[in-house]
Amino acid sequence: MQSIKLNNGVEIPILGFGTYQITDPEQAEQAVYDAIQAGYRHIDTAQSYMNEEAVGRGIAKAGIPRKELFITTKVWVENVSYDRAKASVQRSLDRLGLDYLDLLLLHQPYNDVYGAWRALEELQQEGKVRAIGISNFAVDRAVDLAEFNQVTPQINQIEINPFQQQAGNIAALKEEGIAVEAWAPFAEGKNNIFQNKILTEIGNQYDKSVAQVIVRWLIEQEVVVLTKSVNPERMAQNIDIFDFALTDEDKAKIATLNVGESQFFSHADSQMIKWMASRKIDV
To answer: In this protein, which residues make up the domain named NADP-dependent oxidoreductase (predicted)?
Structure first.
């Protein structure tokens, strides 16, 4: 598995298995187990996904040595403060059945971000977390966090897909030494993406699916990719992308699909911020 070296020397597998919206405990446990059997070693969850316990059971069931796995979770908005972040991370570790995390992210750019970041820095110093980062932060917020704290975020997990390509933000984050990770690379199927003519035609050239073309497009930009499926065949397909390469012509065609806006919601939407502030998941 290809990996990317973060700014603190930790290496992250470039392909990960995401568990968002896999809320049924038995299904989540089985999906994580199946993903590991398919070859994934990078598993991504979050406090707000409400499946950390099931993810932990799937990890344990797989029986892979801990050092061979890369496990990520994220601190939800209600826990974004110095004291609550520290306490919530311990609860996440307990739910996952782990002694340490490979990557810990602040899930959203709201609440007491700076207090929570100091807590993450301390958790990293204590060895409970190997790498720390952020998710859904605009470039200016990421730079602000880096400039006024001891540790520059190791990674920023943001929405990237053919309709929201974020080329400028990817370049700007990399310039700051912050690796980039893509959530929703398939735009959760929006805009009929799996039947998109351009992506289908590119895939046909290499006997690959639309999903495989998208994953390949991202890893060729050195962007970490999270894919999700509860179907073992699709899990295996999504990771089978190291035997072909896109041409400049292919990439130019994909560039025409960019609409330059989120396929879900704006993080500047005041109503969305209020909704996140009201969502209590950790009691």
So the answer is: 15-257
Beta bridge partners of 16: 226
Segments making up each domain of the chain, as ranges: 3-278
DSSP state of 81: S
Question: Is-contact 23 51, C-beta < 8 A?
Answer: yes
What's the count of helices (H) and strands (E) in the chain, helices before strands? 11, 10
pLDDT digits (tens, 9 = 90+) for 154-171: 999 999 999 999 999 999
Q: Which of 72, 68, 5 is nearest to 41 (CA)?
A: 68
- Which residue's structure tokens are 């301390």? 122
- Is there a catalytic annotation at residue 49? yes
Average pLDDT over residues 135-144: 97
Q: Give the CATH fold of the 3-278 domain.
A: TIM Barrel (3.20.20)
Structure tokens belonging to residue 281: 């998941």
Partners of 11 in the beta sheet? 5
- Sign of torsion over alpha carbons 195, 207, 244, 70: positive
